[in-house]
Design a protein that fits this description.
With about 350 residues, this protein is of the alpha+beta class. It is built from twelve helices and twelve strands. Strand 3 and strand 4 form a beta hairpin.
Length: about 350
């Protein structure tokens, strides 16, 4: 079989034959980016998998668009991009470096990260060692890719004439206010083990209650217990807030409470009986409430319009904290209708026909 037609096509092709293997590799990486990323160690979360896949495809698409531009420029202006060889090699270097860095980071988390059980799910999060080694891996891979690109573009003279280290230090100094505080806060939290992957925390200043899924040098990711979405909080902001670690609880579980405002027309004995019924029915309907640990009922405040009663109970499963609160409040509402015991703040001023009294 003769291949003269193929040779004739390659000679007249707008893109040199030397670029065809690069284009082929680029197309393969774009089509199978999801599969390539998923082949990494199983320490990568679904969110990070999607982000890494999107990043790999974005780099591949950018490289492909450069070839398209060259073809169009050749067809319209009859000019050819002289630096297309360097661009091809640079793009391929960046693609390979991205994939290698992804695999390196995944292996570091598997090897040096922490494993915790979170509500029946095994999570592998960052640790102090994995963060530091991951940072070193990022620097090494980036440095190797940078040196390869310098050689591709034959910029050795420029590299000698300029201080790359000085430029990097200048960039770090200029951006220190954006990431240095978060990095220091992240290292402190790693060192003190104040917040760890798998911990159930409540941050009242931010209105967040959820499970810590990942801690990096710059930010902490918390999975909200209500809406099940992930919330990203800068480490510096989290460290300056009051963080309650709910999962670090006693043998009875985490002690939670709910307040109820009840009018002065109800006797203390009736209110205590009512709140005990609320707790009993809640413990029967919600597995997260510890039915073996008896509740405590106390008066918090004798207000101008009502008495504030507090029901303290134990939640054995901290991951069901909000479910337990919702169950108690729902049952309290239903029982208040049956017992004719109002939970609303009594009206102390009424507008009568004769005026305000």
């Amino acid at each position: 079989m003769s291949f003269q037609w193929l040779n004739s096509y390659l000679e007249n092709a707008p893109i040199d034959a030397i670029h065809l293997p690069v284009i082929g590799i680029n197309v393969i990486i774009f089509l199978f980016a999801g599969y390539i990323i998923k082949m990494s160690p199983k320490a990568i979360s679904e969110t990070r998998l999607k982000r890494s896949t999107l990043g790999l495809r974005a780099i591949s698409m950018a490289l492909f668009m450069i070839y398209v531009f060259d073809v169009l420029w050749l067809s319209i202006a009859g000019a050819h991009v002289d630096s297309l060889v360097e661009i091809s090699q640079t793009g391929l270097t960046i693609l390979v470096s991205y994939v290698v860095l992804h695999f390196v980071q995944g292996w570091i988390i598997v090897r040096f990260g922490k494993v915790k059980e979170v509500n029946g799910e095994t999570l592998r999060g960052e640790s102090y060692a994995s963060e530091m080694i991951g940072l070193i891996g990022l620097i090494l891979v980036s440095s190797i890719a940078f040196l390869i690109i310098i050689n591709i573009w034959d910029l050795n003279d420029w590299l000698q004439a300029t201080s790359v280290i000085g430029g990097v230090l200048l960039i770090l100094f200029a951006s220190k206010d954006y990431f240095l505080g978060d990095m220091i806060s992240g290292l402190i939290m790693h060192y003190n083990y104040s917040v760890e992957a798998g911990s159930v925390v409540r941050v009242k200043e931010l209105g967040v209650t959820g499970v810590v899924t990942q801690i990096t040098l710059s930010q902490t990711i918390i999975r909200d217990l209500v809406q099940k979405h992930e919330i990203t909080i800068p480490n510096s902001r989290l460290r300056n807030a009051t963080v309650e670690t709910i999962s670090n609880c006693t043998k009875n579980g985490f002690r939670e409470y709910l307040d109820f405002k009840i009018g002065y027309d109800q006797s203390p004995e009736r209110v205590q009986e009512f709140l005990n019924k609320v707790w009993q029915q809640s413990a029967e309907n919600e597995a997260g409430i510890n039915s073996d640990a008896k509740p405590k009922i106390v008066v918090i405040e004798n207000g101008d319009h009502a008495v504030t009663w507090r029901l303290l109970f134990y939640v054995s499963n901290p991951y069901r904290l909000l479910d337990a609160r919702n169950t108690v409040q729902t049952i309290a509402f239903g029982l208040s209708q049956q017992e004719k015991l109002g939970l609303n703040t009594p009206v102390t001023h009424q507008i009568l026909s004769g005026g305000l009294t």
